[in-house]
Amino acid sequence: MGGKQSKKQTSTELTDKHIALLKANTKYDEKAIRDWHASFIRDCPTGRLDKKKFVEVYQQFYPTGKPDKYCKYAFETFDTNNDGSIDFEEFLLAIAASGQGDLNDRLGVAFDLYDVSNDGTIDQKELTNLIIATYDLVGETDRKGDKDPKKRAADIIAQLDTAGDKKITRAEFIAGLKADPVLRQLLAPNA
Asked: I want to staple 176 with a disulfide (CB 3.0 to 4.6 A). Which of 46, 60, 85, 160 is the partner?
């Protein structure tokens, strides 16, 4: 009673309340939620995914790349309560939003990843850093000419920035990527 308690559940138990919340906010049924949970707990017995484990998971998917920089941005996007770890609820909601939502929702998740400053816009520095992180992740070493991250970021901003303020808003990002499948594949391959 006198001790501090987090508002978020830190145990490994999946309650009926959590299942109801996840069913309401994803397209997963109870069986799928329980299967995801069992897998999550198998990989994260404490019920929490820390940054180190997050990088290890990405390393499995990109064995020839260097996921550290990319994972920093992705982890911060998925750790919605900013407690330094991802619990099962944050994990499944992130998986669902990036893979199940409609195109606007999936592009919104991608926008949140790129908007490192959380100011509702993506500037050239943020975009350049994410392009570098993505190149590192996939093992891309050719960064000259059109593949130069700073040039590529400037070109993308020039293409998507309809307001002319050298920043991309969420609306500009979503509209631009919906209209350009090649750019969508580059910036939001899962969308």
From this structure: 160
